[in-house]
Amino acid sequence: MKKQDKFSASRRDFIKHSSLGIVCSAPLAGGVVGSLLSSPVVAAEQSTVMTAAHWGPLGVVIENGKVVKSGPAIEAPIVNELQSVVSEQLYSDTRVKYPMVRKGYLEGNKDTTLRGHDEWVRVSWDKAFELVANEMKRVRDTYGAKGIYAGSYGWYSSGALHAARTLLHRYLNVTGGFVGSKGDYSTGAAQVIMPHVLGTIEVYEQQTSWEDILEHSDIVVLWSANPITTLRISWTSTDQKGLEYFKKLKESGKRIICIDPVRSESCEYLGAEWIPINTATDVPLMLGIAHTLVSADKHDKEFLKKYTSGYDKFESYLLGKTDGQPKDAVWASKLTGIPVDTIKKLAEDFSTKRAMLMGGWGMQRQRHGEQSHWMLVTLASMIGQIGLPGGGFGLSYHYANGGVPTVTGGIIGSITANPSVKAGEKTWLDETSKMAFPVARVADALLNPGKTIKYNGTEITYPDIKLVYWAGGNPFVHHQDTNTLVKAFQKPETFIVNEVNWTPTARMADIVLPVTTSYERNDLTMSGDYSMMNIYPMKQVVPPQFEAKSDYDIFAELAKRAGVGEQFTEKKSEMDWLKEFYQTAFDAARKNRVLMPKFEKFWEENKPITFKASEKAKKWIRYEDFRKDPLLNPLGTPSGKIEIYSDVVAKMNYEDCKGYPSWMEPAEFAGNATAEAPLALVTPHPYYRLHSQLAYTSLREKYAVNDREPVLIHKDDAAARGIANGDIVRIFNQRGQVLAGAVVTDGIIKGTVALHEGAWYDPADLGKSEKPLCKNGCPNVLTRDEGTSNLAQGNSPNTCTVQVEKFSGEVPEVTVFKQPKYKES
Fold first, then answer.
1. How far is CA 165 from CA 82, 132, 633, in A?
2. Confidence of residue 556 (pLDDT cuts 50, 70, 90)
3. Cys-Cys crosslink for 687: which of 19, 58, 232, 268, Cβ 3.0 to 4.6 Å?
4. Is the Cβ–Cβ distance between 358 and 398 less than 8 Å?
5. Strand (E) positions, 368-493?
């Protein structure tokens, strides 16, 4: 076999056994569970229950009180294996089965460095409630609301009632307040800059209808976006209509371009043109295209004059009049690794064809991340197709089925974090809102109480946090620079976690309370965060397993012990809340002249309610009204226009975020890699899990290489290091080291390696080493914990370089998916 053939075979083998092979499979007729929902009783001892999760509506088969099978309740256009592992979520060896307390903490040992490697002690629920209630009261009485941080993240579960973050905040609000956070990890930079540019958050808003794109677009560009992976899930619950539309796009024969360091699942599935780009250089590429447009006099001067503000200041920078460096295609090529002719051809094609630029969020998760989406909007403005059929830009087509037409129907209600405050009662909301800091700065805040940082034109001073309560989330996988995070979480006096599984975060806690999965309780959710197409019943599939309790019941009991139980529950049961939430949708639907069954009938029927989109919704175009009449439909910016130059941002005087979009070289990227860390690292979303969720299931067998996370490495980079397909490698830099399994491929740009985010942190020598070896390949051990800029202070994991070498010596076992040892109290 020739050398090239060997690499090709390796690539084919990887595709066959990974997501890239699965997404190319034929659509599944009738769904994995076939007609389960239409045949409620499959056998005398079997039944099927409908529920839902982030990965869609599910038919779950129960036999003799135990889940034996699960799959999609609605036919999926592309196989979604995430729907097949309900039983493993319920019965996995990773589950937290009982209330647990760290031995040293229970004995009064104040040494917080024992977190993560101390012994565990099983306690009763009464003892656990007593410990938590007393500690909450002690900290609140001693330090006030500023001593308690509510650490939580919303991806934990779907559901209108059992939303862990909301319930945690509700409990802390009724008992006296807490320190919260601003923003999120997904769009930390974009959601702060976009209001200055477009007058709206933009990243979580409806997109131009897919029906319009399929009719009018000539070119669809997936820019740092991988929708075939990310549309397998949704913030509420996916109905997979987004995947269905991408399937139609594939079948349409339209030109599709993927700009990405990795030849992604989407690029493979769609048969798209792949333009490999150096990580963190999207802004130079956009500038190179923009410069070409101006040089060829193909930028839309009329659009820029009528609909934008400050373009002239940006153009001076673009042409090099402000800094002596024209941002032409030659300059851009050197930074991006993309040929000059390709850059010029993109400029020509975008200006002569109707193009939809679908921007992903990975390119703003880097140092100076604010610039990427600001520059994308600027480029779209220069092309001049914003507000036209099939043209412009969109920042949410890859997320939660954006672009699926919004339906006419009703939207269910949900539990709130702030129960009604009676007249004259003291509220803590004003106080706690002033103490909130950007979520990506949590380690900095814990390590440096009293430190003041800049943020979006203001200043924030970190409070001195003494207690962290985390419910819903896994920061020891999600947050950057894990070794620094370990030190940060050794600072608080107490760390409490509500968890389903023994995640790396649960293992770092003092008190761990076992909570139910969504399959062990009743709830409601909707599908398609933008379309709101379906209402799904989330029926309890089995009783709570082991000694797990729902977050609602846990916080209700803690609120009761604090003397505010009725304020938390409002004297309502689980089903009382669900009926109320459903009634909200029922009343709205009736106003819209849409029929819905009464709650009792809906719940009994065991199937979703589906609303329809109007013809107007199917033809909806984002910014169409603004384009037709910018005076009657101004944007929410000071000028009412698209602000290519923002006077507000300029007056903040931040060196790392100017008044117009610009390129600022990050501390670590392919263009300044060193001999010690010569390879850029990119951390894409995984195909077989949701962030760190489902990492412990059998789905791991589909992608793990020698029981490690796979790392994609270009064949030339591998050859230079003597690395072969399947080798276990050590990836390292000044922040840490991890093990991974090598996937040698030509499907990644040379000089970059890809390690998917969400791998569970599994340190070999925690407590014994400053940089313990992560046996399982968690990429955030390697990434920088640095704010995107003084404007947004978002996270910047894709600003990172590493070295890779073949691992020598005895390979340690991955142990993070096993039960930790404990003793009875």
1. 23, 17, 36
2. very high
3. 19
4. yes
5. 392-394, 407-408, 437-438, 452-455, 458-461, 467-471
Beta bridge partners of 358: 222, 394
- What burial letters (b/e) apply to 498-527, b meaning 16+ CB within 10 Å? bbbbbbbbbbbbbbbbbbbbbbbbbbbbbb
Residue 256, H or E segment: strand 255-259
Q: Can you tell me the distance from the alpha carbon of 609 to that of 626, in angstroms, rounded to the nearest whole number?
A: 34
Q: Report yes or no: 595 and 589 within 8 Å, Cβ to Cβ.
A: yes
Cβ(59)–Cβ(37) under 8 Å?
yes
11's enclosing H/E stretch is helix 3-16
Distance CA 264, CA 247 (A): 16
pLDDT digits (tens, 9 = 90+) for 323-342: 999 999 999 999 999 999 99
Q: Show the tokens assigned to 477.
A: 């996988």
- Active-site residues: which are they? 153, 155
Distance, in Å, from the CA atom of 467 to the CA atom of 141, rounded to the nearest integer, reads 12
Q: Going by C-beta distance under 8 Å and a sequence separation of 6 or more, which residues neighbour residue 452? A: 459, 460, 461, 462
Strands 523-526 and 534-538: antiparallel
CB of 472 closer than 8 Å to CB of 164: yes
Helix, strand, coil shares of the chain, percent, nearest 5, are 35, 20, 45
Confidence at residue 427, expressed as pLDDT on a 0 to 100 scale: 52
Strand pairing of 407-408 and 679-682?
unpaired
Instruction: Quote the CA–CA distance of 728 and 8 in Å, as a whole number.
Output: 20
Contacts of 551-555 with C-beta under 8 Å, sequence gap 24+, read 551/162, 551/164, 551/167, 551/168, 551/471, 551/472, 551/498, 551/515, 552/161, 552/162, 552/167, 552/521, 554/498, 554/513, 554/515, 555/167, 555/168, 555/170, 555/171
- Residues 213 and 256: their CA atoms lie apart, in Å, by 12
Tokens coding 102: 């760290």
Q: Report DSSP state, residue 542.
A: S
Q: Scanning the structure block, which residue is given the tokens 């909450």?
A: 136
Cα–Cα dist 758/764, whole Å = 18
Q: Is 610 exposed, middle or buried (0-12, 13-18, 19+ CB in 10 A)?
A: middle
Residue type, 286: M
- What's the longest Cα–Cα distance across the chain? 82
Cβ distance 204 to 190 under 8 Å?
Answer: no
In sequence order, what E strands does 486-529 have?
494-499, 511-514, 523-526
Cβ neighbours, 10 Å, residue 68 = 12
Task: Check residue 191 and report its DSSP letter.
Answer: H
Tokens of 41: 């009783």
DSSP character at residue 763: B
The one-letter amino acid code at 565 reads G
Task: List, for residues 443-492, the tens digit of each pLDDT value.
Answer: 999 999 999 999 999 999 999 999 999 999 999 999 999 999 999 999 99
Query: Which pair of tokens denotes residue 234?
Result: 């949704």
Six token digits for residue 648: 């507000």
Q: Is 213 helix (H, G, I), strand (E, B) or coil?
A: helix
* Contact indicator for 670, 750 with CB cutoff of 8 Å: no
Spell out the residues 6+ positions from residue 32 whose beta carbon is closer than 8 angstroms to its own. 70, 71, 72, 79, 83, 84
Burial 559-596 (b: 16+ CB within 10 A, else e): bbbbebbebbbeeeebeebbbbbbbebbebbeeeebeb
Q: Is the pTM of this model over 0.85?
A: yes
Residue partners of 127: CB distance under 8 A and separation at least 6: 99, 101, 825
Q: Which two tokens stand for residue 298?
A: 């193909």
The H or E element containing residue 67 is strand 66-72
Query: Nearest to residue 781, comparing CAs of 480, 447, 506, 486?
Result: 480
Q: 601-656, pLDDT tens digit by residue? A: 999 998 999 999 999 999 999 999 999 999 999 999 999 999 999 999 999 999 99
Alpha carbon 413 to chain centroid, angstroms = 23
